[in-house]
Amino acid sequence: MLRWIVAVCALMLALPLSVSSARAEDGYDLWLRYRPVEAGYTIPATSIVSEGSTPTLTAAAEELKRGLTGLSGKAIDTGTVSDNAIIIGTPSSSASIAILNPDLTKAGEEGYVIRTTRLNDKPVTIIAANRDIGVLYGVFEYLRLIQTRQPLTNLNIADTPKVKLRVLNHWDNLDGSVERGYSGTTIWDWWKLPDVRHPRYTDYARANASLGINGTVLNNVNSKAVSLSPAYIQKTAALADVFRPYGIKVYLSARFSAPIEEGGLKTADPLDPAVRAWWKAKVDEIYAAIPDFGGFLVKANSEGQPGPQDYKRNHADGANMLAEALKPHGGVVMWRAFVYSHEKPDDRHKQAYDEFKALDGQFADNVLVQVKNGAIDFQPREPFHPLFGAMPKTPLMMEFQITKEYLGFSTHLAYLGQYYEETLKADTFAKGKTGNTVAKVVEGAIDGHTLTGIAGVANIGMDRNWSGSDFDQANWYAFGRLAWNPQASSRAIADDWARMTFSNDPAFVAPVVDMMMTSRETVADYMTPLGLHHLMDTGHHYGPGPWVDNLERADWNPVYYHKADINGIGFDRMKTGSNAISQYTPKAAKAWANPKTMDERYLLWFHHVPWDYKVKSGRSLWDEVVITYSKGAADTTAMRNRWASLKPYVDAERFDAVATNLMIQEREAKWWRDASVAYFQSVSKRPLPEGYAPPEKTLDYYRSLKFPYAPGN
């Protein structure tokens, strides 16, 4: 009996989106819910005409039929050109498209055109592209217009992605766990692959294609060499087969020491001929099984991972060895710039710049250097990474974190689209010019790079709602939309997501979008106010730990970053301290150089400041720290109350799930506030501002809390 129950539960988890839409609203459908539109909104679609039969065009036609059937509430014919038909295809796949001759000059390789016109005197809508994948992207865009209740008359839309590689990085392990994952175990059932291909894999591909995501790295950057073994290559090939119709290439994280562990060599020296030959043979083997394999993601010489520096070589030596093996097949290397080691105890903020800046121009032309949005590690707030704008001869690939390692896991509501946009809009002042934003660096617009990329560390797991909470789906969605167009508006993206995921009622959409747009600021206030950072507890990164000072290396300890004592607090990154500020262009550095004029949200990131220092509000720094912590905690209560007022607009299951998470967030925000204030008061020896309550518990109590089994370790 127990085995039968387990089998039924497993089957339910694997049900595709199209089947689950008949079930209760549990979040599985993501933003592709396709529920019937309300009376008064007209969908002028009577039939679908698709004259192509490739797997991608078939997927596009099926998606369009699924979407239109669900949204209109009626059956949609296929195959005939009637009044208000929708014609999809490319000029080479469809005679009707060829006759209509849409202008596809602006569509590029992956873009599309959506246009209302006439064919044989019948009103029709065409969704056309130069390649099949563009048609699929156009279909999803057309369905989005309906889902967000946009007018469908007089359409004349042309769009193409601004970034070439739009990739999810899965930190999934072969044992089923997910590092920094808060939505259950990995969705890749490595044990049953390549034989069992769960329907969930197709739904994953559909969801990503709806955003224009065109690549996925299947395994953790802290990789195992066995991922490159023949057995696992066949497993990877099975996933590639599922994803291919949706325009998604598979990539693998490659362990640098694989020639030793898998190949039996005595060295992994990138300049050793035998090592280079091993990688060439291994790459040939992969492409024999996966002809459109994307390439490798590599974490090397960071956090104990092997790399070229083990052999007194540099990052370019290591990356170029792999690039040489991949290039004949069209593959790329994404070489991560997140590096820090025991041998360099200097400010971690500086290490990536110090190791990579001097290598600009030395990387092969199929190598991208993948750079995190900030120089420390996905903190609730970070200034943009100084490498952006500093390596004009090298394509820099942005790395965002979608999973919320430092922002409350999956139970705290924090919309990261606003964070991504903030980083992308930051001005690097590259080449001394205003307007050379991080987005333009990533797009290759400043230096003319054609190989461009943006990556997001995925928050996807086997939880029924994919990401651990309904609102965390918005971060996956926002990442995909900004990867397609890094200059898009995160507020407009949030508006689309709220409408597609919950309701188009303005009484729901407006307050929810406002809540989303302030949510990340709220989290930063109760976790890391005024530029404080890296204050989380050890290992699991769950909850506050500003007192931690006993870890193996200095820059693992929060005390290293806040440097609080009785005189003041903050990390001095000016010339008087680590001088990390010098890694930015002079105009960019100027924004943070003067504590009197700078954006005080970054004050303690760049300056060590006395507790009695007067901030812009006129209050002392100590009072401002306490007040900001308290404001963040109070704002979570406001968020919970706002959600409670929206109950009439949301199905009961998802409403209750979000309400529960907001209750958890409110409680844990108060914990963050109280524990942090208790610790910093013990250091500053100052009284709390008048009217502000003392921490509920003693500092010893907060320090005693342990969470050895927190998820995501």
UniProtKB/TrEMBL annotation:
It is an enzyme of class 3 (hydrolase). InterPro entries: A-glucoronidase_C_sf, GH, Glyco_hydro_67_aGlcAse, Glyco_hydro_67_aGlcAse_N, Glyco_hydro_67_C, Glyco_hydro_67_cat, Hex-like_dom2. Residues 468-692 form the Glycosyl hydrolase family 67 C-terminal domain. Residues 146-466 form the Glycosyl hydrolase family 67 catalytic domain. Keywords: Carbohydrate metabolism, Glycosidase, Hydrolase, Polysaccharide degradation, Signal, Xylan degradation. It catalyses: Hydrolysis of (1->2)-alpha-D-(4-O-methyl)glucuronosyl links in the main chain of hardwood xylans. One of its GO terms (molecular function) is hydrolase activity. Residues 30-142 form the Alpha glucuronidase N-terminal domain. Its EC number is 3.2.1.131. It comes from the Bacteria. Belongs to the glycosyl hydrolase 67 family. Homodimer. This is Xylan alpha-1,2-glucuronidase. It comes from Asticcacaulis machinosus. The lineage of its organism: Bacteria, Pseudomonadati, Pseudomonadota, Alphaproteobacteria, Caulobacterales.
